TrEMBL record, chain A:
<dbReference type="Pfam" id="PF00155">
    <property type="entry name" value="Aminotran_1_2"/>
</dbReference>
<dbReference type="InterPro" id="IPR015421">
    <property type="entry name" value="PyrdxlP-dep_Trfase_major"/>
</dbReference>
<dbReference type="InterPro" id="IPR015422">
    <property type="entry name" value="PyrdxlP-dep_Trfase_small"/>
</dbReference>
<dbReference type="GO" id="GO:0008483">
    <property type="term" value="F:transaminase activity"/>
</dbReference>
<dbReference type="InterPro" id="IPR004839">
    <property type="entry name" value="Aminotransferase_I/II_large"/>
</dbReference>
<dbReference type="InterPro" id="IPR019942">
    <property type="entry name" value="DapL/ALD1"/>
</dbReference>
<keyword id="KW-0808">Transferase</keyword>
<protein>
    <submittedName>
        <fullName>Aminotransferase ALD1, chloroplastic-like</fullName>
    </submittedName>
</protein>
<keyword id="KW-0032">Aminotransferase</keyword>
Automatic annotation (TrEMBL), chain B:
<dbReference type="InterPro" id="IPR015422">
    <property type="entry name" value="PyrdxlP-dep_Trfase_small"/>
</dbReference>
<protein>
    <submittedName>
        <fullName>Probable LL-diaminopimelate aminotransferase, chloroplastic</fullName>
    </submittedName>
</protein>
<keyword id="KW-0808">Transferase</keyword>
<dbReference type="InterPro" id="IPR004839">
    <property type="entry name" value="Aminotransferase_I/II_large"/>
</dbReference>
<dbReference type="Pfam" id="PF00155">
    <property type="entry name" value="Aminotran_1_2"/>
</dbReference>
<keyword id="KW-0663">Pyridoxal phosphate</keyword>
<feature type="domain" description="Aminotransferase class I/classII large">
    <location>
        <begin position="96"/>
        <end position="460"/>
    </location>
</feature>
<feature type="compositionally biased region" description="Low complexity">
    <location>
        <begin position="9"/>
        <end position="19"/>
    </location>
</feature>
<dbReference type="InterPro" id="IPR015424">
    <property type="entry name" value="PyrdxlP-dep_Trfase"/>
</dbReference>
Amino acid sequence: MYKISTGSSIMHCPALLESRSRLKAQMETSVVSAAPDYFTRTRVSRNVNMEKLQNNYLFPEISSRELEHMKKYPHAKVISLGIGDTTEPLPEIVALSMANYARCLSTPEGYKGYGLEQGNKELRKAIAETLYKDLQIKDTEVFISDGSQSEISRLQLLLGSKVTIAVQDPSFPAYIDSGVIMGQAGEFDHASGRYQKIEYMKCGPENNFFPDLHETPRTDIIFFCSPNNPTGQAASREQLEQLVEFAQENGSIIVYDSAYAAFVSDESPRSIYEIPGARKVAIEVSSFSKIAGFTGVRLGWTVVPDELLYSDGFPVLHDFNRIICTCFNGASNVAQAGGLACLSTEGLAAVHSAVDHYKENARILVDSFTSLGLRVYGGVNAPYVWVHFPGSKSWDVFSEILEKTHVTTVPGSGFGPGGEEFIRVTAFGRRDNILEASRRMKSLLS
Amino acid sequence: MHCIQHNPSTTSLSSSASSIHGQNKFSDIRTQSISVRGRDGGRSMIKCIATSSSEKTAYKTQVSRNENLAKLQAGYLFPEIARRRAAHLLKYPDAHVISLGIGDTTEPIPQVITTAMAERSRALSTVKGYSGYGAEQGEKPLRAAIASNFYADVGIEEDDIFVSDGAKSDISRLQVLFGSKVTMAVQDPSYPAYVDSSVIMGQTGQFQKDVEKYGKIEYMRCNPENGFFPDLSKVFRTDIIFFCSPNNPTGSAASREQLIKLVQFAKDNGSIIVYDSAYAMYVSENKPRSIFEIPGAKEVAIEVSSFSKYAGFTGVRLGWTVIPKELLYSDGFPVAKDFNRIVCTAFNGASNIAQAGGLACLSPEGIKAMQDVVGFYKENTQIIMDTFNSLGFKVYGGTNAPYVWVHFPGQSSWDVFNEILEKTHVVTTPGSGFGPGGEGFIRVSAFGNRNNVLEACSRFKQLYK
């Protein structure tokens, strides 16, 4: 059994191992609860860090709520604007390149076994040259991953249990959860909704979604996501300069998540390395998921600059390389072929077209909520719309929206206590679904 | 730091074991090797050297290096082998270097499998066929196919299966699951990822140079004298026991009787076995292919496996881990539930295209194709075994695994490795890279195209006649 705290009440729900299938996929549930006493227990203690975790990871939880709802209303057309799952098909050029690569693996000339753990050299070069043009990132500083979520945990493994971390509040849950799992956090404090030992940097309308760094104590590591999931805010150049300066003064390392950089519409920086001095203080993690629809294909990258040094002068890159060689064996070569195709001229154009589609979705959603008199944030530089419901409990709003409009969103408090009173609506979806969802919300909320 | 192309005259490749296990402090080793694969599949080396002037004035953060990383003695074994190979290629640019070192598959993937991957790729560009995030535990049909093909008779079900991007990643995820406070035992010699991931997780003490072991790890010696099965009466209790069968590197496959003993040992001690069955399809004799063939194993064991060595998926990246529902922590909490949480948080599923390939692997046609590939490598293994046998060496393994474990009594395995490389241009793997129990042995892997394997063997005959 797991418990979801909504603040005012504790809801008990059966623990489910859920698939995160879409409507058209099969629904499967299997129950894993505390096993009956007739199984012999081992004498291995459960990892106390796992015990500290409060409940399921956020997104499987959203999935399971959605599935429950679908069972309750088998004829409802549930629209998922919850999990940020891409919906637009891959560009043909990308799909074809992967198909060809796969076929070549059946030929003596085209067969490839183990690739370099750091990733295919051509792909690393293409990322450095195309996505970090003029930023002096070397291909040897680019590590190809199977996506940010895996990489964030590998970075935590690198950094170890003794580092202190700061996160934005609200933030993508993987930073906190992976930190808890690695042993960087203390116990969860129910009153505040925070894990002890983690520094939560509040980001809200009152501070323009940028933390007040004067009030922020030093931590070793600062996780910073821009454009931001879930608030949709992109930090300005001035704000990032402040952040880099703050990191320099404190000797901290920024882990900068730029997964949504492709959605930037204005002059906001797309990479932390646009800020002078960032090479000495920042790691950047990114992904093909939201740029290219690779959420299932699994491909991303991490930049670790040569100049980034531990306090004893040891290069972080050297240890990260060791982690990659020991705990990983490279991203799938087929996925990497697809990544390379994305970065071709034709590929980039096709990929931008999908991003534009999602941005238009975001605009539609922003307009809809704004027309209802709601305070709406994000949606301009990111595929997330952050809607304020002052005085509310976000899980209650989530439940009401789901119950009454059959639209799944994500309650802001799932991203940290700073998300309370907010709902995240993703702009990933087929256009007709986005329009339909907007209509339904308008009926409910007007 | 600046990067220079490797210059052989400035390299000192020491052959002694101690230099390989030398201190990995930045102050001692000012070079960092990044190996780069060339078109011929060979790796060339780029060295990055920190100049002392930049080091003095270079900005440093105030973040302490993870002391667990500092405990590691050298690079991971296989990049080191690759580096040696690359250096050798630079030294002898016209030599036909043959790689029987890293266990890298060479035979193309059967068409039934790549066709499925190509079709899935194309489908992703259509509205109907597009899929985004998949279940972190893996696609349902693949989990079902793994359960029915490999575990039908032992009661392992679809939802006990977690699809991975390969055994190596899952070994580290299991270590993250177990945490830093567990104790672990490994066979000696063993696949280096178990020990190295344990060090990284903080489960171990410092490396002890005199015995070439990390503190707090229980090393279970496996050698010809004990039939490559540890004397469990001499093994201290640990929380976790890593056991690989058929074994990398020794090639030995445990018998049913031996595994019954192992399961009993784990039961008596309340331990969890992490059973690596990546080479199960290479079993020829009447030996178990899964730990779950042993009654009672479900309450003590996790099994990790991979498509790498069956389907040539070393680059495609696909494997699986079995965690039975019956496996419980001391407080009764199911291990699978926590692993599920790890998989949902620290991972996002194996590539959907790789999974489509995996499903094709498990079709009747795919199974037959994989058996043919395995059969091909087994023929290679036989050729290698025959060669060393004919030269009068004591040869182990090979029958149930794609590795031949050759004994060179009284010799340093790195010295033998170097001599073989220097004189025959064949890359092998020195046994001590797998632990002190590997000293005096060389691992020859049987992955290679037939001509290369035959050529390598004729060179061995020349060298050792």
